[in-house]
Amino acid sequence: MPSRRPDRRAEALAERWIGLYGDLALRTACLFLRDRGLAEDCVQDAFVSAWKARNSLRDPRAERAWLMTIVANTARSHLRRRVPIPTDALPADLSARDPIDDLALAADLGQALDQLPADQREVIVLRVYLDLSVAETAKSLGVAEGTVKSRLNRALEAMRQIWIPTTD
């Protein structure tokens, strides 16, 4: 039986993805799942799925959006398999890496996101946090672009009602 040599280019691609997108993928999964352990499992599953589907990436400029769509879809799959979503705050070590410097503000934002229905939280994460386009978000969620716009509008209105950051 011939020995199988590892594909060095493929290994380099996997390492590049993890280096460039690993932290973002984990933060994204945490926002969806609100559980770091489950988010870590989700990211691992998502990167394995991405690896298997790597030849379907047609435009390398869309790599980030493609990978984060896989992370979002994997997180949604994890949510369907799991009933309760914890509402306790994320660990400080994860929040410290968020772009938000004020940890109290990050915790307040997380609690506000917890109050949104899952479909609105998903749109907020994809459109606002990941800055995906309306078309990319629609494709990721498997809905029409108009649905993304209306969900985002409802989610932002709900966020205005429930999340009033305190400034001292």
CATH architecture: Orthogonal Bundle
What proportion of the residues form beta strands (DSSP E)? under 5%
State the CATH class.
Mainly Alpha
Listing every helix as H and every strand as E from the N terminus to the C terminus, the arrangement reads HHHHHHHH
Q: What's the N-to-C terminus distance?
A: 69 Å
Query: What is the number of strand segments?
Result: 0
Continuous helix count: 8
User: Rounded to an integer, what's the Rg over CA atoms?
Assistant: 17 Å
What would you call the shape? globular
- State the fourth-level CATH superfamily: Winged helix-like DNA-binding domain superfamily/Winged helix DNA-binding domain
Give the total of domains.
1
Integer average pLDDT: 78
Give the uncertain stretches in residue-range form: 83-87, 94-102
Structural class: mainly alpha
CATH topology: Arc Repressor Mutant, subunit A
Can you give a write-up of this model?
The protein has 168 residues and is an all-alpha fold. The chain has a single domain, classed as Winged helix-like DNA-binding domain superfamily/Winged helix DNA-binding domain (Arc Repressor Mutant, subunit A). Helices cover 69% and strands 0% of the residues. It has helices at 8-33, 36-52, 63-81, 92-95, 103-114, 118-129, 134-141, 145-162. Helix 1 crosses helix 3 (63-81) and helix 3 (63-81) packs parallel to helix 7 (134-141). The model is unreliable at 83-87 and 94-102 (pLDDT under 50).
